[in-house]
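Tokens for chain A. Residues wanted.
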């Protein structure tokens, strides 16, 4: 099987802990390599052997459907041996600390460790202790870099570029690692980022990350090219952030009426899982012409293949 484009380019980082700190060139390299894997994933034979002999462990301390499955598929399609571990089935339940879990896995000579954890910064803590490459699959409300990369790939493939686009990120920004990673990425790539939410769901000084703050969908969606909806992340909330989900939908739920002020070609995104009728109307979510929600899922596998490929190049050497 032919190697994807940029087969010999090197990536200067061992881990992918966040988008913050990556340059536009590094982001573009990941997206370019991912483009090659998108095509490979459409073929009947989706496998290569470039990670053959390497071991990947997916360590998930939080629930996940698409992120875990797509990291697993990505590793398998690159030929790695992939093992999934969840906190429920591990010694974490017996009181083992995160560091001890990491050291234990490290002793087994892993090559890539994919981690999701409910505490911001936990993945970095772990990355400092192990010899393998660590990929952040979401840490608390901090970062979720592969989600932002797959979102960027979806936008780039549909609208041809990122630079100059108006992207409105709407909903529970306060608890969202997806929003943070997207703000960093879109700024690095020269897009104009808006966040749209009630004041209760916005972190203070979010504008310092380089985005415009809007409290109404009408002003936030005006002339937007991309409308990215986020779920109310109830599991991270302590207390009441919105009066009721009915009222929330009335003011902030995406429907065709609110979408009218966006550009006619505006696309709709959502990282999933969706709460239909809360942050997004079913009709809009299922509108195949405008909604990219399933494209995001498809491209997630390719992006994770690109990240695994690039991060392990150092240990594989460039000669395959
Ligand atoms: C997101 C996450 O876990 O941060 N989901 C995902 O990875 N696709 C967003 C969410 O849970 O709402």
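Reply:
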């Amino acid at each position: 099987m032919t190697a994807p484009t940029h087969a010999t380019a090197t990536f200067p980082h061992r881990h992918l802990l966040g988008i913050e700190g990556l340059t536009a060139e590094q982001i573009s390299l990941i997206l370019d390599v991912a483009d090659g894997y998108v095509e490979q994933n459409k073929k009947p034979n989706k496998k290569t052997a470039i990670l053959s002999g390497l071991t990947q462990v997916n360590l998930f301390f939080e629930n996940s459907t698409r992120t875990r499955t797509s990291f697993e598929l990505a590793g398998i399609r690159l030929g790695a041996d992939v093992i999934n571990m969840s906190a429920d089935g591990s010694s974490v339940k017996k009181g083992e600390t995160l560091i001890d879990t990491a050291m234990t896995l490290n002793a087994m000579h892993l090559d890539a460790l994919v981690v999701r954890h409910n505490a911001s910064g936990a993945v970095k803590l772990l990355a400092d202790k192990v010899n393998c490459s660590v990929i952040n699959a979401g840490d608390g409300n901090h970062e979720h870099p592969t989600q932002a990369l797959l979102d960027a790939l979806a936008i780039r493939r549909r609208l041809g570029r990122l630079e100059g686009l108006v992207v409105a990120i709407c909903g529970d920004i306060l608890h969202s690692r997806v929003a943070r990673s997207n703000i960093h990425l879109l700024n690095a790539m020269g897009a104009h980022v808006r966040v749209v939410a009630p004041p209760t769901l916005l972190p203070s000084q979010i504008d310092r990350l380089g985005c415009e703050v809007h409290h109404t969908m009408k002003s936030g969606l005006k002339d937007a090219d991309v409308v990215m909806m986020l779920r109310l992340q109830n599991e991270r909330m302590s207390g009441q952030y919105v009066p009721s989900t009915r009222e929330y939908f009335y003011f902030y739920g995406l429907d065709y009426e609110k979408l009218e002020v966006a550009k006619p070609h505006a696309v709709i995104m959502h990282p999933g899982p969706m709460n239909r009728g809360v942050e997004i109307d079913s009709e809009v979510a299922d509108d195949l012409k405008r909604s990219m929600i399933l494209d995001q899922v498809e491209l997630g596998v390719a992006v994770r293949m690109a990240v695994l490929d690039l991060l392990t190049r150092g240990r594989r050497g460039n000669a395959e």
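The chain is about 35% helix and 15% strand. The two ends are 12 Å apart (CA to CA).
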